[in-house]
Amino acid sequence: MTSAGNKGQSIEEKQYLLRFNADTKSHLTVMDADVCLTSCPDKICTIFCPAEVYKWEDIRMHVGYEGCHECGSCRIGCPHQNIKWEYPKGGHGIVFRLG
Ligand code: SF4
Ligand code: SF4
């Protein structure tokens, strides 16, 4: 069903239009866990990622790659270049629905 445009939609409503076909293997890799633990007090990836893929869990970074929006921000956003970002394998990843 379509509405009179997408203006005024909340993030939650917009995210309802997203579907994911997750691969079994992550396309995102935190390369050196020690860098996150010892050299990155702000854990900025937990802030800039619009999909909240990165969650700090006591001493390690949990990467919920299944919900990645493939915006590419973490390719440039990590101040230590500690995230390896690849496109998901063909047929996997995010699927956009347009209404
Ligand atoms: S921004 Fe980079 S270095 Fe910092 S916590 Fe995230 S992945 Fe680790
Ligand atoms: S590509 Fe975008 S949505 Fe995916 S993990 Fe990186 S910042 Fe988050």
Describe this structure in words.
The chain is α+β, with helices and mostly antiparallel strands and 99 residues long. The chain has a single domain (19-96), classed as Alpha-Beta Plaits. Helices cover 21% and strands 22% of the residues. A two-stranded antiparallel sheet has the order 1-6. β3 (54-57) and β4 (60-63) form a beta hairpin. The chain is globular and about 40 Å long. The structure holds iron/sulfur cluster (2 copies). One iron/sulfur cluster (SF4) binds next to α4. This is Ferredoxin-like protein. Residues 59-88 form the 4Fe-4S ferredoxin-type domain.
In short:
The protein is of the alpha+beta class and 99 residues long. The protein has helices at 11-15, 33-39, 45-48, 73-77, and strands spanning 18-21, 28-30, 54-57, 60-63, 83-85, 93-96. A two-stranded antiparallel sheet has the order 1-6. A two-stranded antiparallel sheet has the order 2-5. A two-stranded antiparallel sheet has the order 3-4.
